[in-house]
Design goal:
Layout lengths: L1 E3 L5 E3 L3 H7 L4 H4 L2 H4 L8 H14 L5 H14 L4 H13 L3 H14 L5 H13 L3 H14 L5 H10 L2 H4 L5 H24 L5 H17 L3 H15 L3 H18 L2 H12 L9 H5 L4
Antiparallel strand pairs: 1-2
Helix pairs in contact: 4-5, 5-6, 6-7, 7-8, 8-9, 8-10, 9-10, 10-12, 10-13, 12-13, 13-14, 13-15, 14-15, 15-16
Length: 289
């Protein structure tokens, strides 16, 4: 949710961005080992069968803990099995245990015999969740270097730019603006990569528009922020974080221009927020007229 440092300086904590970019596919596809394959093939049939059992468990939220125990059992049998570390990290992420998840993603990335996009991407996202921004930046740069034709690393760097106020709390406004400008440039490249891969669909375009909207809000370019929020509004209309940030951009733009339409859009977005008690008092007061 958003945290207001003052009425003019905004720190936006956007953890849900990471969950949006992780996977666009369904859980059944996400946990289909036959489609995903192994980076470190099972040493024997017993371990392979344990993996299939773990993957079935991962498909059901109530069984992710069981999946984690199975994967831990695999690690005790083969300590170099990088896939077991990775999917144990996934199990822990599903349970909200992000610090432990990051550790296992790190082991998976380190043990993999060759560069694995999925391992690096999940490690970077886990690092953002626990505030280890330098590690996230390192992994996204590795993705860009090792998978230059794909959008993942560029999108990741764009998302990372939304955390700059957390990563560098003492940075000057100009320094933060530079980070955000670089983030926007990376998003432009990500869009080009999606189009080149013929993957410029609604799911991917919405992720780009949403991240751009956050960065333009941080840069105080509220007109551009609103334009990008509008592009993905249909998809994220019922998300608390989306409405809080959309309301903020609309309110700030109204203060700049006295545009009544923006004022009304901001009020409507604010009214869609169900858990208003989680918002900072200064933010709530903006809409209490």
């Amino acid at each position: 949710m958003i945290v207001l440092r003052s009425l003019s300086k905004v720190l936006i904590i956007f953890f849900f961005l990471c969950s949006l970019v992780s996977y666009a596919q369904s859980k059944n596809t996400k946990y289909d080992i036959d489609k995903i394959g192994f980076s470190c093939p099972p040493a024997n049939q017993e371990i392979k069968e344990l993996f299939y059992t773990a993957f079935e468990a991962l498909k059901e939220p109530e069984h992710v803990n069981t999946a984690g125990r199975i994967l831990l059992n695999i690690i005790t049998k083969d300590s170099k099995m990088c896939d077991a570390y990775f999917w144990l990290g996934v199990s822990l992420t599903e349970q909200g245990k992000h610090k432990n998840a990051a550790i296992y993603y790190y082991y998976a990335d380190s043990l993999a015999p060759k560069s694995n996009l999925m391992f690096k991407r999940e490690l970077a996202e886990a690092a953002i969740r626990i505030g280890v921004y330098g590690l996230a930046e390192q992994k996204y740069k590795e993705v860009i270097e090792q998978f230059p034709s794909l959008p993942d690393g560029f999108l990741g760097m764009g998302i990372l730019a939304t955390t700059v106020s957390n990563a560098y709390p003492n940075e000057s406004d100009k320094g933060m603006d530079d980070f955000q400008t670089i983030g926007l440039k990376n998003l432009v490249i990500a869009e080009e990569k999606y189009k080149a891969q013929k993957q410029w669909n609604k799911a991917n375009s919405d992720k780009i528009y949403l991240t751009k909207a956050i960065l333009f809000t941080l840069k105080r370019d509220y007109k551009q922020a609103i334009a990008n929020f509008e592009q993905c509004k249909e998809t994220y209309l019922n998300l608390e974080e989306f409405n809080a940030n959309y309301a903020l951009a609309c309110d700030e733009y109204y203060k700049q221009t006295k545009d009544e339409k923006s004022k009304q859009e901001g009020i409507e977005a604010f009214n869609r927020i169900k858990e208003k008690e989680k918002l900072k008092e200064d933010f709530v007061k903006r809409f209490q007229h």
